[in-house]
Amino acid sequence: MPTFFEAKQVVTPGELLAEGDYQPGENTYTEAGKIFASRIGLVDCENKKVNVVALRAFYVPKPGDIVIGSVIEVGFNGWTVDIKSPYTALLRASDVLSRPFKPQNDELSQVLDAGDLIVAKIASYDRAHDPQLTVGEPGLGKITRGQIMRVTPTKIPRIIGRKGSMISTIKTETNCQIILGLNGMILVTGKNLAEEELAMASIKKIEDESHTSGLTDRITQFLKEEKEKLVPKVEQNVEPKEEENKQ
Amino acid sequence: MTDKQEKLIDKKGIRGDGRKADELRSLKLEVGVLPNADGSAYIEHGKNKILVGVFGPREVHPKHLSKPDRMVIKCRYHMAPFSVPERKSPAPSRREVELSKVIRESLEPALFPELYPRTGIDVYVEVLQADGGTRCASITAAALAIADSGIPMRDLVVACAAGKVEDTVVLDLYDAEDKLGSADVPVAYMPNLNAVTLLQMDGILTPAELEQAVNMAMDGCKKIYAMQKEALKTKYMNLKDETKEEEESVE
Question: Which of A38, A59, A151, A215 to mutate to test the interface with B (most CBs of B within 10 A)?
């Protein structure tokens, strides 16, 4: 019952991981009692379960996931939403409008139009049907301000960090609100552009260096250094205004 | 063969381009070269230069081509007009249509089409420069591009040809050997699963020679496979400290 890897080793598709008394976990498959990797990623083994944390993957919808998508089409009784997954999602009009939906009274494009971005939750999804979205919960709905960025969906847990440590560090250091869509889309809303950009830069850094160790410390360090650079800029922004006021 | 033509293999068993009978051409593999594609790879196999871009899984257009129970795989093999000494018409030729099908079918066993019903992936193979054995180089690069895009695979597919030139079985034929030699046997292979996904033969070989050629090609495949894995890992090893942190979960 051997395994054929060291913990956190990078494996490629088709690499033999374990044989015998092991369970196949994420991004693995079994054939003739042997476990192989099916994606490039980092292997590790927990309670006899062999997992590969993928370095590159796409988003597969799961009911209950919060995602960020953009409206691509306004239909007769709902919207088609691109959620950066193999399947486009549907958002029904009756879900958005709190009252019963009548096609003759309501113009759907006035509620949400093509190109609008929304935060939504996957209400249902299975092999035979496209995912359905819902926005009927607090915090969900149309995005009115902030910036959007995209990362590989498998990096989202890394950005969240252990018990949310990483993301809360970024949030408090940059004073930004950050919504992580599990489909890899991230919404950053801050009080000014510089802070938003700092938050985005640190998320990008996490994505690029997600397979290295000691990342939380490095991100804290990075945020501290960058913020020091920011301070003079913010002051400069303020000064001219004061001068204007004096005049 | 005309008098001007040099011998393809000299008395010492050295071939026209200086290789031994069982020697591969030089190989260079690169992954993730096209930011606009979901996955991409570039291969230089001898004088062959091939670029592969992969998209998907995504919705299939036109919609009637999608399958309710599986993912469809589309492949386009295309040679650039400047890829050969004489300008090649950019319109798909009979040969390119065949190679598109052959490449698609040699990649298909490596994928899990049943996992993503109603979707499709597109594999675009662009031959920038051709010098014999492009189908094999294309398969090798396409497998890398698919792995790079994050599509689950059973194994990387790797391909290599062997053939017969002047009564000798040789590995990895280049253009002149392909045209003037007497047989060509491309083999695509999944080394970890020990499964052949493509086997073609052009020309005449005795059963014994065929077996020798197939074995030789499979040995060549194994060498290329090691380079393929290396290329895939290099992309992610730029920051090469091994992680020791425990896996961080959503909770």
Answer: A38
A interface test, pick of B60, B157, B247 with most A CB neighbours within 10 Å: B247
Kindly state the average pLDDT of the residues A87-98: 89
DSSP B6: P
Burial degree of B227 (CB within 10 A; 0-12, 13-18, 19+)? middle
Among A55, A87, A212, the residue with its CB nearest the CB of B241 is A212
Tell me the domains of chain A and their CATH numbers.
10-54 (2.40.50.100), 66-142 (2.40.50.140), 147-234 (3.30.1370.10)
Q: What angle do CA A206, A208, A212 make, to 5 degrees?
A: 75
**For residue B184, what are the domain limits?**
27-232
* B243 reaches A (C-beta below 8 A): yes
Contact B237 A10 (CB under 8 A): yes
State the complex-level ipTM.
0.85
Structure tokens belonging to residue B132: 């014999």
- Per-residue pLDDT tens digits for A227-240: 888 776 555 555 55
